[in-house]
Amino acid sequence: DATPDCQQAVVNFLADPNGSVGNKDEKTTQVFTLKKGADGKYSDSVTPANVTPIPKENFAFDIWTKDNGETGVNPFVAQTLNGGDKVTYTAHFAADKIGPENKPDGIPDKYQAVVTYKVVGGTWKDGKTDAQVQVFTLKTKNEKTGVWEDANPVLGNTIPTGMISSYSRTASQSWDKDITKDTKVTESVTYTYTFTKKSSGGGGGSSVS
Description:
Elements: E1 8-15, E2 19-21, E3 29-33, E4 35-36, E5 42-46, E6 53-55, E7 59-66, E8 79-82, E9 86-95, E10 112-120, E11 122-123, E12 132-137, E13 139-142, E14 147-150, E15 164-165, E16 170-175, E17 189-197
Parallel strand pairs: 1-9, 10-17
Antiparallel strand pairs: 1-3, 2-6, 4-5, 5-8, 7-9, 10-12, 11-15, 13-14, 16-17
Protein backbone atom coordinates (compact mmCIF):
# COMPACT_ATOMS: atom_id res chain seq x y z
CA ASP A 1 0.00 0.00 0.00
CA ALA A 2 0.99 3.66 -0.04
CA THR A 3 1.60 3.84 3.73
CA PRO A 4 5.29 3.96 4.70
CA ASP A 5 6.57 0.83 6.47
CA CYS A 6 7.64 2.93 9.45
CA GLN A 7 3.97 3.62 10.14
CA GLN A 8 2.89 -0.02 10.01
CA ALA A 9 3.51 -3.37 11.66
CA VAL A 10 3.09 -6.79 10.07
CA VAL A 11 2.03 -10.01 11.79
CA ASN A 12 2.53 -13.27 9.89
CA PHE A 13 1.12 -16.68 10.73
CA LEU A 14 2.99 -19.81 9.63
CA ALA A 15 2.85 -23.54 10.33
CA ASP A 16 5.42 -26.27 10.90
CA PRO A 17 5.52 -29.17 8.39
CA ASN A 18 2.81 -31.14 10.22
CA GLY A 19 -0.04 -28.78 9.48
CA SER A 20 -1.19 -25.53 7.94
CA VAL A 21 -2.93 -22.34 9.06
CA GLY A 22 -5.89 -20.31 7.94
CA ASN A 23 -9.42 -21.25 6.98
CA LYS A 24 -11.23 -19.41 4.22
CA ASP A 25 -11.35 -15.64 4.75
CA GLU A 26 -8.75 -15.77 7.56
CA LYS A 27 -5.73 -13.60 6.90
CA THR A 28 -2.36 -15.21 7.54
CA THR A 29 -0.63 -11.88 6.94
CA GLN A 30 -2.12 -8.98 8.87
CA VAL A 31 -0.96 -5.39 8.44
CA PHE A 32 -1.67 -2.76 11.09
CA THR A 33 -1.41 0.99 10.55
CA LEU A 34 -0.20 2.55 13.79
CA LYS A 35 -0.76 5.84 15.56
CA LYS A 36 1.85 8.57 15.68
CA GLY A 37 2.98 9.47 19.17
CA ALA A 38 4.09 12.78 20.62
CA ASP A 39 7.67 11.71 20.00
CA GLY A 40 6.95 11.32 16.30
CA LYS A 41 7.24 7.52 16.40
CA TYR A 42 4.50 5.14 15.41
CA SER A 43 3.14 2.64 17.93
CA ASP A 44 -0.19 1.14 18.92
CA SER A 45 -1.95 -1.68 20.77
CA VAL A 46 -3.36 -4.13 18.25
CA THR A 47 -5.15 -7.48 18.42
CA PRO A 48 -4.57 -9.89 15.53
CA ALA A 49 -7.63 -11.59 14.07
CA ASN A 50 -7.98 -15.32 14.65
CA VAL A 51 -6.15 -17.77 12.40
CA THR A 52 -7.06 -21.45 12.65
CA PRO A 53 -4.34 -24.12 12.97
CA ILE A 54 -5.12 -27.12 10.73
CA PRO A 55 -3.26 -30.34 11.59
CA LYS A 56 -2.43 -33.10 9.14
CA GLU A 57 -3.87 -36.57 9.72
CA ASN A 58 -2.68 -38.16 12.97
CA PHE A 59 -1.47 -34.82 14.31
CA ALA A 60 -3.03 -32.30 16.70
CA PHE A 61 -2.39 -28.61 17.26
CA ASP A 62 0.11 -28.06 20.06
CA ILE A 63 1.18 -24.44 20.52
CA TRP A 64 1.81 -21.11 18.85
CA THR A 65 5.30 -19.69 19.25
CA LYS A 66 6.44 -16.12 18.61
CA ASP A 67 9.43 -15.43 16.37
CA ASN A 68 12.31 -17.61 17.67
CA GLY A 69 10.62 -18.45 20.96
CA GLU A 70 9.96 -22.03 22.04
CA THR A 71 7.21 -21.58 24.65
CA GLY A 72 3.49 -21.41 23.96
CA VAL A 73 1.83 -18.03 23.49
CA ASN A 74 -1.59 -16.68 22.59
CA PRO A 75 -1.25 -14.48 19.47
CA PHE A 76 -4.82 -13.23 19.59
CA VAL A 77 -4.54 -10.79 22.49
CA ALA A 78 -3.77 -7.09 22.60
CA GLN A 79 -0.08 -6.37 22.06
CA THR A 80 1.93 -3.24 21.51
CA LEU A 81 3.68 -3.00 18.15
CA ASN A 82 5.98 -0.33 16.81
CA GLY A 83 6.38 1.00 13.31
CA GLY A 84 8.40 -1.37 11.15
CA ASP A 85 7.83 -4.39 13.40
CA LYS A 86 7.48 -7.76 11.72
CA VAL A 87 6.20 -10.49 14.02
CA THR A 88 5.87 -14.16 13.10
CA TYR A 89 3.69 -16.65 14.94
CA THR A 90 4.21 -20.32 14.09
CA ALA A 91 1.68 -23.07 14.74
CA HIS A 92 3.26 -26.29 15.97
CA PHE A 93 1.66 -29.71 15.77
CA ALA A 94 2.41 -32.99 17.53
CA ALA A 95 1.53 -36.65 16.96
CA ASP A 96 -2.03 -37.65 17.85
CA LYS A 97 -2.70 -41.37 17.47
CA ILE A 98 -4.17 -42.35 20.84
CA GLY A 99 -7.46 -41.51 22.48
CA PRO A 100 -10.77 -43.13 23.44
CA GLU A 101 -11.49 -46.23 21.33
CA ASN A 102 -7.87 -46.10 20.14
CA LYS A 103 -8.56 -43.15 17.84
CA PRO A 104 -7.03 -39.64 17.67
CA ASP A 105 -8.79 -37.21 20.00
CA GLY A 106 -7.34 -33.82 19.13
CA ILE A 107 -4.89 -33.84 22.06
CA PRO A 108 -1.17 -34.38 21.39
CA ASP A 109 -0.11 -37.83 22.59
CA LYS A 110 2.80 -36.34 24.54
CA TYR A 111 0.28 -34.84 26.96
CA GLN A 112 -1.49 -38.15 27.56
CA ALA A 113 -0.83 -41.48 29.26
CA VAL A 114 -2.29 -44.93 28.65
CA VAL A 115 -3.17 -47.05 31.66
CA THR A 116 -3.68 -50.73 30.86
CA TYR A 117 -5.37 -53.16 33.23
CA LYS A 118 -4.73 -56.90 32.75
CA VAL A 119 -6.03 -60.01 34.50
CA VAL A 120 -4.09 -63.28 34.83
CA GLY A 121 -5.52 -66.58 36.06
CA GLY A 122 -9.07 -65.30 35.83
CA THR A 123 -11.50 -62.97 34.08
CA TRP A 124 -13.12 -59.58 34.53
CA LYS A 125 -16.57 -59.61 36.08
CA ASP A 126 -18.13 -59.83 32.60
CA GLY A 127 -16.19 -63.04 31.90
CA LYS A 128 -13.82 -61.41 29.42
CA THR A 129 -10.04 -61.37 29.61
CA ASP A 130 -9.11 -58.61 27.17
CA ALA A 131 -6.93 -55.84 28.54
CA GLN A 132 -8.86 -52.77 29.65
CA VAL A 133 -7.30 -49.53 28.41
CA GLN A 134 -7.89 -46.02 29.73
CA VAL A 135 -6.42 -42.82 28.25
CA PHE A 136 -5.66 -39.99 30.69
CA THR A 137 -4.84 -36.40 29.78
CA LEU A 138 -1.81 -35.21 31.75
CA LYS A 139 -1.97 -31.58 30.64
CA THR A 140 -4.72 -29.23 29.48
CA LYS A 141 -4.21 -26.05 27.54
CA ASN A 142 -4.78 -22.66 29.11
CA GLU A 143 -6.49 -20.95 26.20
CA LYS A 144 -5.73 -17.48 27.60
CA THR A 145 -1.97 -18.01 27.69
CA GLY A 146 -1.54 -20.77 25.09
CA VAL A 147 0.45 -22.87 27.58
CA TRP A 148 -0.23 -26.50 28.52
CA GLU A 149 -0.65 -26.92 32.29
CA ASP A 150 -0.64 -29.96 34.58
CA ALA A 151 -4.04 -31.63 34.93
CA ASN A 152 -2.95 -34.01 37.74
CA PRO A 153 -5.25 -36.95 36.84
CA VAL A 154 -5.85 -39.91 39.16
CA LEU A 155 -7.09 -43.44 38.46
CA GLY A 156 -10.48 -42.66 39.98
CA ASN A 157 -13.22 -45.17 39.16
CA THR A 158 -11.36 -46.73 36.22
CA ILE A 159 -9.91 -49.53 38.38
CA PRO A 160 -11.72 -52.79 37.52
CA THR A 161 -13.52 -54.72 40.26
CA GLY A 162 -15.31 -58.05 40.52
CA MET A 163 -12.60 -60.16 38.90
CA ILE A 164 -13.32 -63.93 38.87
CA SER A 165 -10.74 -66.68 39.39
CA SER A 166 -10.41 -69.45 36.82
CA TYR A 167 -9.20 -71.87 39.48
CA SER A 168 -11.31 -74.13 41.69
CA ARG A 169 -9.26 -72.92 44.65
CA THR A 170 -7.28 -69.71 44.74
CA ALA A 171 -4.19 -69.20 46.89
CA SER A 172 -3.97 -65.44 46.40
CA GLN A 173 -5.30 -62.61 44.30
CA SER A 174 -3.98 -59.07 44.05
CA TRP A 175 -2.74 -56.23 41.87
CA ASP A 176 0.98 -56.22 41.13
CA LYS A 177 1.17 -52.64 42.43
CA ASP A 178 -0.67 -50.88 45.24
CA ILE A 179 -3.32 -48.72 43.57
CA THR A 180 -6.37 -46.81 44.75
CA LYS A 181 -8.73 -44.30 43.19
CA ASP A 182 -6.30 -41.59 44.36
CA THR A 183 -3.27 -43.05 42.58
CA LYS A 184 -1.79 -40.34 40.36
CA VAL A 185 -1.32 -40.92 36.65
CA THR A 186 2.00 -39.50 35.47
CA GLU A 187 2.97 -41.84 32.62
CA SER A 188 1.79 -44.88 30.67
CA VAL A 189 1.68 -47.96 32.89
CA THR A 190 0.24 -51.47 33.09
CA TYR A 191 -1.45 -52.89 36.21
CA THR A 192 -1.99 -56.66 36.40
CA TYR A 193 -4.43 -58.47 38.66
CA THR A 194 -3.24 -62.05 39.24
CA PHE A 195 -4.97 -65.09 40.68
CA THR A 196 -2.64 -67.90 41.81
CA LYS A 197 -3.80 -71.49 42.03
CA LYS A 198 -3.90 -73.30 45.35
CA SER A 199 -1.96 -76.56 45.24
CA SER A 200 -4.83 -78.87 46.21
CA GLY A 201 -8.45 -79.01 47.32
CA GLY A 202 -11.85 -78.46 45.78
CA GLY A 203 -14.50 -75.82 45.87
CA GLY A 204 -15.69 -73.07 43.58
CA GLY A 205 -13.97 -70.15 42.00
CA SER A 206 -13.54 -66.88 43.82
CA SER A 207 -13.96 -63.26 42.95
CA VAL A 208 -13.00 -59.84 44.23
CA SER A 209 -15.37 -56.94 44.70
